[in-house]
Design brief:
386 residues; Rossmann fold; 14 strands; 44% helix; 17% strand
């Protein structure tokens, strides 16, 4: 079963107007399947195949003769030398659009090649795991908690017979072998997996790199390198604090989140909805889920780098969205019925930021329907975020 993605229209539009389109995102988010479905007349070659990657890297001109445009080049970060030759081909036929559709699951490596050789020639989109709204559109009866535990990898929703625990265990093993070994010189994959599990335990918390390194038993410099690997491969998200002149005591450390709640639950040994309901970390899992849905909303609206968190020395609001000078505040609460205690931080932040700047303040909760709360705040189910 195919689950349509929100960005499909944007992909088609960009391919019709730009010579190169780059689609980034973690492994298994559906980059290759989406491009092949939308552009069936394009040739396809995967640089996951060592023979293809080697020729693309060592003999890029010959490689492009074998695979002329229009073509989909999958996992193109494995051949950095190819980017300069792509530039030459594109510049020779600049009026042709949709020549090269590129995918990559190592964002930093990919973007370095794009920025150095294809600046001004390439449009860039990110394909994240499925949002709850995308699954609900295709499968209206999908339970919310089931989605949180299974996560947003498309195959888990296209094939409901797949066991989510086995899928994520295999995903983790494959990720460590295929991406980590090629991204950096990691001495021990076992230590790296422990590091990933330690990150899962800290999801939705302020990042303290020194504590994280100490708990895993690695050097702080190693922890920084490994965090970069996780971020580059789309496994974690670092949410930055929002700054303004009126809130001078805001912290500078980001908050750490795993990108997909399915992998988060697997790492926390939450195997089903019953386990989720009794898990001590259920609040952090919910906050991680809400961030993923807000990021989907912002991407769908064409807004980049618009999400933050707000914090001073005594109070914190989970999420702050800013667009054109207008601010929206969101608190993520596991409850089905928010009360006045859930509004304390929202009210405090609204006063600190200025009521004229704050367009709305909401508690994102498990309520079946939205309803007004005190002082102009609102309880919002996840479905209303989109």
């Amino acid at each position: 079963m195919w689950i349509p993605r929100t960005l499909e229209a944007s992909l088609r539009q960009l391919a019709a107007t730009r010579p190169v389109v780059v689609l980034t995102g973690a492994r298994q988010t559906g980059k290759t399947s989406t491009l092949r479905r939308l552009f069936p007349d394009h040739d396809f070659v995967s640089l996951d195949l060592p023979s293809e990657a080697e020729q693309a890297e060592k003999e890029p001109a010959l490689f492009l003769q074998r695979h002329p445009p229009p073509v989909i080049l999958d996992e193109v970060q494995y051949a950095p030398a190819l980017f300069r030759h792509l530039k030459s081909v594109v510049d020779g036929q600049r009026d042709r659009t949709g020549q090269f559709l590129l995918t990559g699951s190592q964002k930093f490596t990919l973007m370095r090649g794009v920025s150095e050789s294809l600046a001004g020639r390439a449009a860039i989109l990110e394909l994240a795991p499925l949002a709850f709204a995308e699954v609900r559109a295709a499968r209206p009866r999908t339970p919310l908690l089931d989605f949180i535990v299974r996560g947003g990898m498309p195959e888990l929703h296209a094939r409901k017979d797949l066991d989510a625990v086995s899928f994520h265990n295999s995903y983790l093993a494959t990720y460590l072998e295929r991406d980590v070994r090629t991204r950096a010189n990691v001495g021990s994959l076992r230590d790296f997996e422990r590091f990933l599990r330690a990150c899962a335990l800290r999801s939705a918390n302020l990042l303290n790199r020194a504590d994280l390194a100490r708990d895993v038993g690695i050097a702080p410099s190693t922890a920084n390198q490994w965090l970069s690997i996780l971020e580059a491969s789309g496994q974690v998200t670092l949410l930055e604090p929002w700054f303004s002149n009126r809130t001078k005591s805001i912290v500078k450390s980001p908050k750490l989140y795993l990108t997909d709640t399915g992998l988060l639950c697997a790492l926390l040994n939450i195997r089903d909805t019953a386990s989720l309901l009794t898990a001590p970390s259920v609040g952090a899992v919910w906050e991680t889920f809400v961030l993923a849905q807000l990021r989907h909303r912002e991407r769908a609206a064409g807004r980049a780098r618009s999400l933050f968190f707000w914090r001073d020395r005594t109070r914190e609001v989970d999420f702050l969205a800013e667009a054109a000078g207008n601010i929206e505040l969101f608190e993520a609460k596991w409850t089905e019925l928010p009360d006045a205690a859930d509004l304390v931080n929202l009210r405090f932040a609204r006063e600190a930021l200025g009521r004229t700047k704050v367009r709305s303040a909401a508690v994102v909760c498990r309520a079946p329907n939205g309803f007004p709360l005190e002082d102009g705040c609102r309880a919002v189910p996840v479905e209303e975020l989109v």
